[in-house]
Amino acid sequence: MTILVLILGILLLVALITWAKVNAFLAFIIVALLAGCCFGMPFTAVIASVNKGLGDTLGSVAIIIVLGAMLGKLVAESGAAQRIAHFMHGLFGARYVSYAMALTGFIVGIPLYYNVGFILLVPIIFSVASSYRLPLLYVGMPMLTALSVMHGFLPPHPSPMTLVSVFHADVVKTFGYGLIIAAPAIIIAGPIFSATLKKIGPNGLQFAGSSVNLPADELPGIVNSICSSLLPVVLIGVAYLLPVLFGETSFIKNIASWLAEPIIAMLVTIIISTYTLGLYKGRPLAKIMDAYVSAVKDIAMVLLIIGSAGALKQVFVDSHLSDALAGMLINSTMHPLLLAWLATACLRLCLGSATVAGVTAAGVLFPIVHHAAINTNLLVLAIGAGSLFGSHVNDTAFWLCKEYFRLSVKETLRSWTVMESLVSVIGLAGVLLLDFLL
């Protein structure tokens, strides 16, 4: 009976979001309350579970996600992303322009959320395609691939960060493994796959003069731009090198553990970047703070969706559904990481949003951590890979690609949907290979 309630709950969630067009936050809360009651929990206990799940989930990730949004906004509005794109464009030249675009998306995609990065970098794609007289998709798809991979696989993006918290994974190891998997996924689904798209969509010349960029003299320097964007990664890397370089004294250990905390790394980055990308360039502090407020508004609903997904997960746990589900997972002959990818891919196909699919899978797959010998860092990446599979007409990113690049639905399926599926399958292959090697 409990498994039937779970299936009906997931189907109701899908129907509310995709058919009835109910806001995902409201849909999660409604399903969590109904599921708790159907599981036979007292209503007061259901409310307590919802409050606990929402609070616990947001309490562990909200600060990092908010700080990440602030950094992304600063990188975008300061022109740092534009500077990085133009530098890569000049460094690689026409022959390797697709690799330049992929590397730009990779660097910019660390602090920027997908939709923000897309809107920001599309004018640069148009500009590069126009100057080299190349097809838009050939130039743009590698950059979009890198942005998508970073969004789905790596912290501090919302879904991966939530999964790290739920499964108590190591954020540094998850990021490191994610980079190993991300590199081949970006190269194969980006520059290599984009070579098959040269005859699809309009040529860049049709968009000449359409891009709106900051004047060159207002852009920050390339070293400033790259260092500010990658500083969180650098700080966490330094934290792990300190004991190796200076010995494992108590003082060094304390400094290293302090720097290794993602919240500290992000906060230090915000403080430094506020000066290097803002005050140093003559931008008033009040305007920088206004940009930060705007950044938080942009991701407010994302935070609420993540919290409500945590509420549903907590209802599943407190109703003892996890025990019944764990028995099914244990008795399954399928590899647990493959099972996690498959379940998330199905949710992605039904729900559209990669973030919603990822955080929903966290609740469904939560029991697997306690009842199977599984590397939680790889579990995060398996779910992240599954959350990117098969983007189609119920995904806003699908329509962004279609409308901006002036494609038909068929052309968007041939390009964007195939690229997302390639990334997902390559990500799964990388996860399974790492699981075999580790």
TrEMBL record:
- What GO MF annotations does this protein's record show? gluconate transmembrane transporter activity
Which sequence ranges are marked TM in the entry?
A: 30-50, 57-76, 96-129, 136-154, 174-197, 218-242, 262-280, 378-401, 413-434
Cross-referenced InterPro entries, in alphabetical order?
Glcn_transporter (IPR003474)
What topology in the membrane does the UniProt record assign? Multi-pass membrane protein
Residues annotated as signal peptide:
none
NCBIfam families registered for this protein in UniProt: gntP
Which protein is depicted?
A: Gluconate transporter
Q: Which organism is it from?
A: Mucilaginibacter celer
